[in-house]
Structure formats: C-alpha cells, structure tokens
Design a protein that fits this description.
By secondary structure, the chain is an alpha+beta fold. Helix content is about 20%, strand content about 15%.
C-alpha cells in the first residue's frame, strides 16, 4: 500500500524568457533537489502565473506526487497521483458493503493526473461555448464553481475529448480502479477519514448521518469545513457521483489488476463512483459502486477527469 505523506511544496518554474522549466505547484512526497518557491496548498496564484498552458515534456517528467497543474484557462486543476498497489473492494464485514464489491483483489496503478475536484459548471460551460459539449449547465449567481450535475456518460466522454483537443494532451475518464485508489488515498477504511461519519461535518449533519448508518458517535464533531483527503483531493465521498470508463460487472471475478478500465462484456451500463448528498452515507464509501445506462439522467451524475502522464 502506498503511503501518502505530506512533504514540502516545490515550484519547478522560472519566469525568465528563453527557458523551458518545470511547473511547481503542489505538495510533493519527495523533496525536490532544485530550488523553487514555496507554495501553500491553498494558494493557486502560481498556477495562474504560469498562464495555464500545456505541460512541456520536461515539465511532465519533473512532476512529483501531489504536484498540481492546469493546462488551459478553464481546464480543471489536476493533482499528480503516484504509482502504488492497493486492495480494491470491500470485505464482507464492512458495514453497508455488497456482493458486487467482492472479491477483494490487489491492483497496481501507474501514476496519472486527476482532477482536484469534480468538473465545475464554469469548466463545463467552457466546453459548451467551444461547441465541444452540447448540454449547457444551468448556473445561478455565485455557483459557477459548483460541480456540474445531470451529465450522461456519453456527455462526460465528449468533455474529456474536448479537453484532449484543447490541450493536445491525453485527458480521459478515470478507470474504476483509479477512482477507488484516489478515494482511499492510502487508507483501508470505508472512507479516507475512517469507518464512520466525517469528523469535519457539523454536529447536526453528523447526527443525521449517524442515524442513517446506525453507528455511535465516539468523538465530538467539529464545525470545521470539509478538508481534502491525503492526496489533496476534494469531494471524493458523498458529493456527486463521478462517471468512470468501465462497463458494469456484477462482481470482480476476472477484473483487471493493472488499474486499467474493464471494458469487455455488456457495456449497456457504465459505473458511477462517489456517492451523492441525496443518498445514504454508505453509498459514498471508497468501495461502493452503482451503474446506470442511457437514457437515464440523474441529478447527481457528474465527472472527475484523469490525465495520462508519461512514466
């Protein structure tokens, strides 16, 4: 199991004409040997200073785990995910687990980039304006940075294809294995924070969820906002469902072990991961999975994008 350990942030960028140097925009698991500017994880100004352009080959090679980058003005902010091996699926004694989450099996994932959050309405509508996507996201004032919702799988594919054309780089949907890997972020519990209610929720919200899943509160719930998981990703549990590339299978017998999408068999249904605010807490567990097929459109359907990176 890979261990996601916080280390200092590193900036691989020289704002000097004539030099092509790596982007530096996020926390890394390994200390860079090159001097750079320190960047707080909440400070995105250096991403903007870089003018949000596609990574050069040198920049891409220099990326380290948890580095951040953005490759166009309205592209999602991406986080680098390290290589690792993890146990996919849930054991029979995990509360709320179902037979389609078994058998548990070891999966090895190669490094890639992942959206720090689900795609926002603003990011989605940039695709609409460019005629890469057809469904306009209705946005009310001050909510353009909310996650886009009500998206079908085919529409999600249109979006990542547009990102690929715009950036000249390979954007795609995550595989189901990759989505569970980034949700777990090195943990083995039902959620990245543990097996119970998110300790960052308010007491009132936590009480509702405790009643929902039938667990006892063992500690005081603080009123602090939700935080990123150990990889620096937001909303991996219980916000919106993310479409992944995989076709639906009733269990993991014969599933790939290399982190790739499982696209053989009956692809009338595609997999969704992540849960939703309108559904029970248990559906947002790291191992939880559901499927839908066209033309069913649900309000909680969204997407989080992946970016293939050179080894």
């Amino acid at each position: 199991m890979v261990s996601f350990v916080d280390r200092p942030l590193a900036l691989f960028a020289l704002l000097i004409a004539g030099f092509s140097t790596p982007l530096a925009s996020a926390q890394t698991m390994q200390q860079s040997s090159q001097p750079g500017l320190a960047l707080a994880s909440s400070d995105s100004s250096l991403l903007d200073m870089r003018l949000s352009k596609p990574l050069s080959r040198h920049e891409e090679t220099a990326l380290r785990p948890k580095d951040r980058f953005r490759e166009c003005e309205h592209c999602p902010e991406m986080v680098v995910v390290p290589d690792g091996t993890f146990t996919m699926g849930a054991s029979a004694d995990e509360r709320g687990s179902t037979e389609d989450e078994r058998p548990q099996h070891q999966v090895t994932v190669q490094r890639f980039g992942v959206g720090r959050s689900p795609v926002t309405c603003d990011e989605w509508n940039a695709c609409v304006r460019a005629k890469g996507c057809s469904r306009h996201a209705e946005v009310t004032a001050d909510h353009e940075y909310d996650s886009v919702t009500g998206i079908l799988w085919d529409e999600a594919k249109d979006y990542v294809q547009w990102l690929s054309r715009t950036s000249g780089r390979t954007y795609r949907l995550l595989s189901e294995a990759e989505r569970e890997y980034v949700a777990r972020a090195g943990t083995t519990t039902a959620f990245w924070w543990g097996d119970g209610v998110d300790p960052h929720l308010t007491e009132a919200t936590a009480a509702d969820l405790i009643a929902d899943i039938g667990i006892a509160m063992t500690s005081v719930i603080s009123a602090t906002p939700r935080t990123a998981n150990p990889l620096g990703l937001y909303e991996v549990h219980g916000s919106v469902y993310d479409w992944v590339e995989d076709c639906w299978h009733d269990n993991y017998v014969g599933a790939p072990t290399d982190g790739s999408a499982w696209v053989t068999g009956d692809c009338k249904g595609r997999v969704l991961r992540g849960g939703a605010a309108s559904r029970s807490l248990q559906t947002g567990r790291s191992a939880a999975r559901i499927w839908f097929g066209p033309p069913n459109r649900m309000s909680y359907m969204s997407l989080r994008v992946a970016r293939t990176l050179d080894p």
